[in-house]
């Protein structure tokens, strides 16, 4: 697998930020990147995730809502389609582009039929990273800028996320709703604890 960072120039990054409105450092996308990175970091060694997968997750988290302007209700499918088909993304090689589209577009419900075109190893990577992205996106579901993930701990049978938030019950319910893929892929549950 290739590292997506190797294919992005400063010019491409700036054009991507401009085209998809990704400049706000306090945005939902930036918070999802932060939460996904925290989860990835604690899982990386035990699950042998590595830097190339980290880059793939970063870009999926950054781009996961780009289909929102087309349809808020089906933005996940539109995100997948944009990454797969829009010539803007031709700078990324295959199969990484397809993997990125499936992870970003799979942050809500389905991963998409293109999953079957990938090798078993790449399918597993897509499932792992989409599972992390679903949890990170669920944490930011209330769009609370004051929410803080204080600690991320991997225990024997679960991932514990210690969160400070006035809407922790809402966060815990959303994470529980989005945890099925994570639990299936990593064989551990996700537990939300109040800071």
Automatic annotation (TrEMBL):
Sequence ranges assigned to domain Ppx/GppA phosphatase C-terminal in this UniProt record: 26-164
InterPro entries cross-referenced by the UniProt entry: GppA/Ppx_hydrolase, Ppx_GppA_C
Protein's GO biological process: regulation of transcription by RNA polymerase II
Gene3D superfamilies per record: Hypothetical protein af1432
Family per record: Belongs to the GppA/Ppx family.
Descriptive protein name: HD domain-containing protein
Lineage, opening ranks: Bacteria, Bacillati, Bacillota, Clostridia, Eubacteriales
């Amino acid at each position: 697998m290739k590292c997506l960072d190797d294919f992005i120039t400063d010019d491409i990054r700036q054009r991507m930020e401009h085209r998809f409105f990704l400049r706000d450092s306090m945005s939902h996308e930036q918070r999802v990147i932060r939460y996904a990175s925290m989860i990835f970091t604690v899982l990386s060694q035990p699950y042998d995730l590595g830097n190339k997968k980290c880059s793939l997750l970063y870009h999926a988290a950054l781009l996961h809502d780009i289909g929102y302007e087309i349809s808020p209700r089906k933005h996940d499918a539109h995100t997948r389609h944009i990454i797969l088909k829009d010539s803007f993304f031709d700078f990324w090689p295959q199969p990484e582009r397809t993997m990125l589209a499936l992870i970003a577009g799979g942050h809500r419900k389905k991963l998409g039929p293109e999953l079957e075109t990938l090798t078993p190893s790449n399918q597993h990577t897509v499932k792992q990273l989409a599972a992390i992205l679903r949890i990170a996106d669920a944490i930011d579901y209330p769009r609370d800028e004051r929410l803080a993930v204080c600690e991320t701990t991997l225990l024997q049978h679960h991932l514990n996320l210690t969160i400070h938030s006035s809407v922790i019950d809402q966060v815990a319910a959303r994470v529980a709703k989005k945890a099925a893929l994570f639990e299936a892929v990593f064989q551990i549950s996700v537990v939300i604890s109040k800071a």
